[in-house]
Design a protein that fits this description.
Elements: E1 11-16, E2 19-24, H1 26-33, H2 45-56, H3 65-72, E3 83-86, E4 90-94, H4 95-114, E5 127-131, H5 146-171, E6 175-178, H6 185-193, E7 197-200, E8 203-206, E9 208-211, E10 225-228, H7 231-238, E11 243-246, E12 250-256, H8 265-279, E13 285-289, H9 291-295, H10 298-306, H11 308-311, E14 315-317, H12 322-330, H13 335-347, E15 363-368, E16 375-377, E17 385-387, H14 391-400, E18 418-422, E19 428-432, E20 436-441, H15 444-447, H16 450-465, E21 475-478, H17 483-491, H18 495-500, H19 522-530, E22 536-539, E23 555-558, H20 561-570, E24 583-584, E25 590-591, H21 593-596, H22 600-606, H23 613-619, H24 628-632, E26 669-677, H25 684-687, H26 698-705, H27 723-729, E27 748-751, E28 756-759, H28 760-770, E29 774-777, H29 789-797, E30 800-805, H30 810-818, E31 822-825, E32 842-846, E33 857-863, E34 869-876, H31 881-889, H32 892-902
Parallel strand pairs: 4-5, 4-9, 5-6, 9-10, 12-13, 12-15, 13-14, 20-21, 20-22, 22-23, 26-29, 29-30, 30-31
Antiparallel strand pairs: 1-2, 3-11, 7-8, 16-17, 18-19, 24-25, 26-32, 27-28, 31-34, 32-33, 33-34
Helix pairs in contact: 2-3, 4-7, 8-10, 12-13, 16-20, 16-22, 26-27, 27-29, 29-30, 31-32
Length: about 900
Amino acid sequence: MSSASPFAATVERLDVAGRALRYYSLPKLESALGLPRGHLAKLPVSLRIVLESLVRNCDGKAVSENDVRTLATWKASDPADVEIPFKVARVVMQDFTGVPAIVDLAAMRDAVKRAGRDAKVINPQVRVDLVIDHSVQVDFAGTKDAFAKNVQMEFGRNGERYEFLKWGQQAFENFHVVPPGIGIIHQVNLEHLAKGVLVEGDVAFPDTLVGTDSHTTMINGLGVVGWGVGGIEAEAAMLGQPVAFLTPKVIGVNLTGRLRQGVTATDLVLAVTEKLRAMDVVGQFVEFFGEGTASLSLPDRATIANMAPEYGATMGFFPVDGETIAYLRGTGRTDEECARAEAYYKAQGLFGIPKEGEVAYSETVTIDLSTIMPSVAGPKLPQDRVNLAEVKRDFRHCFEEPTTGRGFGMKGKPFDKTVAVEHPAGERHALGHGSIVIAAITSCTNTSNPSVMVGAGLLAKKAVEKGLRVPSHVKTSLAPGSRVVSRYLDTAGLLPYLEKLGFAVVGYGCTTCIGNSGPLPETIEKAVKENDLVVASVLSGNRNFEARVHPDVRANYLMSPPLVVAYALAGSVNVDLATEPLGTDAAGKPVFLKDVWPSQEEIKTALAHALDPKVFRELYADVPRQSPAWNALKAPTGGTYAWTTSSTYIQEPPFFQGFTAGRKGIRPIENARALLVLGDNVTTDHISPAGPISAKTPAGQYLMSLGVQPIDFNQYGTRRGNDRVMTRGTFANTRIKNQMVPGVEGGVTKHQPDGAQMSVFEASEKYRQAGVPLVVLAGKNYGTGSSRDWAAKGTKLLGVRAVVAESFERIHRSNLVGMGVLPLTFPAGASAKSLGLTGAETFSFEGVGDGMKPGQKVTMRWTKPDGSKGEVVLEARLDTPIEVEYYRAGGILDYVLGNLLSK
């Protein structure tokens, strides 16, 4: 914070628990700015928290007085088209994005050292917590020893990465690591890391953050302003740069009524996702208010906030109220922390869920909680909600529909086809379209919510007592978001029943939801591939994009944990759980879902075991020391990292080699070729997969050339510290569809002008050798999904200079700019298809140069192989002045490094 803020007169005293604190008063800011009394109280709560950060950090450089005034006079219907320089209090990271971030910082230290400066100038300026949660894979499942075996496999695969992170912990100040086996980043953040109000010196201020995972928004349920950014932006925030974003509209969601019996928080969030996605809230803040909002438990709020990326918003924010303080207390925060949070938010006029009419929103929408129905989402997208009673019919419909939409393109093929498969244990069963092969209680979205987890345990208990069992073709797993979950399930006597159905704990991390579902039995994988079966997964996660859960599982459904157990028992999504039985009891009598579904009273009774402050304090005490395997790792020491050329996990990236400080110019883009032409809804999973590495891919071939056997490939996500692997893995998803090679799936393209078909990486190398710049053409919602830094880094290293799309997902667009790749959008109604572009053309861009400004118009001209020409005016998505500067410098990290070296 600024020591010479021009708003020092707004500082007030706050006495909490015998300690005298100071804070920058928003009520006093009104008079300082000459605003009418009560003006700021009409601003959305989320914006007022951002405003406090501007006031506190106002130094006339990074944050100006005009920045403060502009946000303080925010107009709901017409926000100013200016950027907000938001300085956050801390950064959270997971290991998939955290490893490359620390690799980049280590490489920046080397660049500073080569420049003859003190390498330690590269150091986090705010607290950074990295939670290792993305690397555990479900290799073993269904047995009580699965967790121990998976942890052993995890450390065996990732020891080198973990040693690197352990080096980083001792090399960098303000950098803290939560070891493997503790929990999922967002649940650990919710239950432990977040404090509500922070103190620096004697100044109190709201906890705010950015995280290197799109579901960082889960913390919005606790009243914390924060969202997911790319690893590139997070690194800049770590180094003291503001997180710049355009002044948003704020959509107010008025929740009314109450949830009905049998309806879960998962059902609610799927309805919210469907509603808000249809409203197109991309890039906007969403803030919940009203009596229905106030009635929700904190975990229910966190579930809704977690899914903000799925409904497209920057945040899904819930203001602080009594429920927030009760949750802080129930999860083991200290009495002082709880008292400080309550006193601070009350003093600032920020306490309580706003009632209808109290706050001015850009737009409001009302959702009646009493209308929410039990539902699932799928089979391909989180916003494709399907009422539970319609799942069977909808699956049949999707079976025949084209693959360009929700379907699988199987029209004319026998729907009732089955194949006899022998399970490794010797049991034989029939596998057909709709058969469930993966049933996973996974993901922080739902495992952070005790009501749905207890509901799953109670359903399992009733099912076991009636003699039901899960078919052997279903791979079952339970991956709680923290150790607290398994503790309260065990205390409530429910964990043994889940284990009897195969839902034994497999790990405390982001497993199936991130694609770490592990292998299926060979007999099942063979049957699926050879018979072209559309099999299914059911999971309590937040993402179900194609090939994300498992490359051979095409139908993927998101649902509440109790429904995951129910569908696992049924063994298929081709069943109507409202009218058809889950199975039969010991007497051969059919058992229906209503027979085992727990009542609200039963759940409430079991929930008494869920929020015990003593358990939270015990399990989160001295976290780094609670992992023996982590403590046994021997890591290097020192201020700079000793790179080893033989490593297949950690390599010095090429971004800063040969770096020189000084102003760079924007190079023109002329005579470029298209590397890929892509359709709508291309995700960061398609661009930069996180799952298994195939031996047939360029990445697999590269690893084998170094002597790595396929069994030791691990996943793309775990090799993000090695640019050689990740560049070869860019656009390598097995389900990506490049329209330049119709009818072919995977990372394949055509090299021009010869038209030879080859891998994307091979083509990029040929173009590089010839000095040909590259572009990617795409449709709507390009880059949706997790905030993958390598989706942008790999794009750059392949030689792509620009991506032209109909629209971009917020984080990926920002990441492209952060890597010096120019995002451009077609005018409304235009697309590569409507313009007749096939990828065989050459492209030049008029307007790309040193004079670029935010929103610059750029004319793309092309020449087809027959000599015919065309052009279209595009918009350069450099949205703010600082993004122009980042692009000019070659990327955000080049900008930061250049500034540091020029001082």
